[in-house]
Amino acid sequence: MTLSFDPKDVSLPIGHFIGDRLVSAKGAIQMHRPSDGQAYADCPVADSDIVDQAVQTAKNALKSSNWDGIRPRERLRLLHRWADLIEQDAVNLAQLEAVSSTRPVGQLVDGDIAVSIEQIRFFAEFADKESSALVPTDDGSLGMIMSEPYGVVGAITPWNFPINMAAWKLGPALAAGNAVVLKPSEMTPFSSIRLAELALQAGLPAGLINVVLGDGMTTGNAITSHPDIAKVSFTGSTRAGSAIMENIARSGIKPMTLELGGKSPQVVFADADLDRAAAAITASIISNAGQACVAGSRLIVENSCVEPLVEAILRGMADIKPRFTWDAASQYSPIISERQRQRIADIVRRTVAAGAECLTGGDFMDAPGYFYAPTLLAGVDEDSPAVIDEVFGPVLTIQTFEDEEEAMTLADHPSYGLAAGLFTRDLSRAIRLTRRLQAGTVWVNRYGRSRDHILPTGGYKQSGIGKDLGREAFQSNRKSKSVLISL
Question: Which PANTHER family is this protein grouped with (predicted)?
Fold first, then answer.
């Protein structure tokens, strides 16, 4: 069986999913396929009335289903059943994802979708294992810390890994006993709608998952400012995260989890396995064409090994072939939009104008759609646009150092602290520098997340607040209440 398909043959679920049905709505945002630039659908925009309808539906569903009050094992069973149906529907989901997003269909079934299934099953297991606690007090009293769901969680996900990001939000929120109003990106909404349909088929109460489509200014603001949204979870840019914080502060205080931008360093010492380091570094900036918040976009390498490492990276960037995302042979992603591709090109142009040398790439690729060539920039400094700005594209900069102190100085970005890579065979150095790196995640002798979902992800500085994944993600979807009883 081949995963290749004709995008014209895919039936798109266009509308808002509220309660137990797809609510038809007229489109307002013209959507373009990143692979060929063709307009193919219009995405509707949910206004405050539609968002309110979704929120009220979620509230009613919590009350009528007693979702948090049923046996925890029943919540677990239903979430596992949902994961089973996602697995059975993986090819259909992959096609929905590949049509609209930057994700090649060949990387979805065994990649993004399989990982999403694992994450839902991972969080399902918390339903009957995390609970309230008795705490030590004196003999005359009984102390408890009770754990409760928030109620309705508002979740906003980005376009770069649509189904995976939806699983990040839905899995822990539902396992923790909440309902969710989810807004996927207006550029990549279809797999999220299908997830909601499959949840209903699995037996989850209607209204626990509601998906509203639209942009950030209208739909996103309506979600984050809604008085009955008890908690907000967002993954996206730092700029958008700041706007969400402002909107929440203006409309009322509520907890939030924000996983935001990054400008992650990859620090390589001369004693590292350079072939292994080069492979990891190249993969991190080529994967999804660098459109990932954790993309390792700043190479910081010891002077004595810069030449062989750069040569290996250049070999890894050579012969990249642009293909349609619906072609099973595709291994390289387009940029999400022409606007974003132009932004990448402008950052590269300004960096070169400031004195950088473009060793490869630096231009559009000769193909339909919004492809940008893998790009390697040498001769940059700490003020170069490609070093300071989150490019969100396949652009890697090179800086060099003489000793550990200089390496740590270069690695410490003034704004971001999401992730970092460290390549060395010296265990003492690895532990010592891991403690110094200002990042929420540090990978040593590798770069990128594994399928160990117990490890949380989140950033320092302007890279975010709170954590996704891990035990922390489940706990962040519940609130605590202290109880003291006199005996």
Answer: ALDEHYDE DEHYDROGENASE-RELATED
For residue 56, the model assigns a pLDDT of 98
Query: Residue 154 corresponds to which amino acid?
Result: G
> How far from 274 is each of 297, 300, 367, CA to CA, in Å?
17, 13, 33
- State how far the Cα of 183 lies from the Cα of 253, in Å rounded to an integer: 20
Asked if 418 and 260 touch (Cβ cutoff 8 Å), the reply is yes
Q: What are the helix (H) ranges across 306-391?
A: 306-317, 338-353, 385-388
> What DSSP string describes 191-224?
HHHHHHHHHHHHTPPTTSEEE----IIIIIHHHH
Cα–Cα distance for residue pair 42/28, rounded to 1 Å: 6
Low-confidence ranges of the chain (pLDDT < 70): 1
Q: What are phi and psi of 461, to 5 degrees?
A: 55, -130
- Cβ–Cβ under 8 Å, residues 161 and 168: no
- Where are the alpha helices (H) located in 29-161, listed in sequence order? 48-65, 72-88, 90-100, 114-124
Handedness of CA 165, 252, 417, 428 (dihedral sign): negative
pLDDT value at residue 374: 98
d(CA 2, CA 275): 33
The answer to whether the CB of 325 falls within 8 A of the CB of 37 is: no
Q: Tell me: domain 7-260+464-486, CATH 2.40.280.10, correct?
A: no
177: nearest Cα among 132, 221, 135: 132
pLDDT (0 to 100) of residue 25: 85
Pairing of strands 265-268, 298-302: parallel
- Render 352-363 in DSSP notation, one character per residue: HHTT-EEEE--S
CA 413 to CA 431: how far, in whole Å? Answer: 20
pTM for this structure? Answer: 0.96
Pairing of strands 16-18, 39-43: unpaired
Q: How far apart are CA 47 and CA 35, in angstroms?
A: 30
For residue 334, the 8-state DSSP code is P
Question: In the CATH hierarchy, which top-level class contains the domain 265-453?
Answer: alpha beta
The predicted structure's pLDDT at residue 77:
98
CA dihedral angle for residue 98, residue 104, residue 106, residue 109, rounded to 10 degrees: -50
Total H helices, total E strands in the chain = 15, 22
User: Any idea how long the chain is?
Assistant: 487
- What order do you get walking across the sheet with 357-360 strand by strand? 357-360, 375-378, 395-401, 298-302, 265-268, 419-423, 441-444
How far is the C-alpha of 19 from the C-alpha of 50, rounded, in Å? Answer: 12
Whether 338 is a known active-site residue: answer no
Q: Which of 97, 186, 197, 259 is catalytic?
A: 259
- Collapsed DSSP state (helix, strand, coil) of residue 186: coil
pLDDT for the residue 131: 82
Q: What is the pLDDT of residue 1?
A: 61
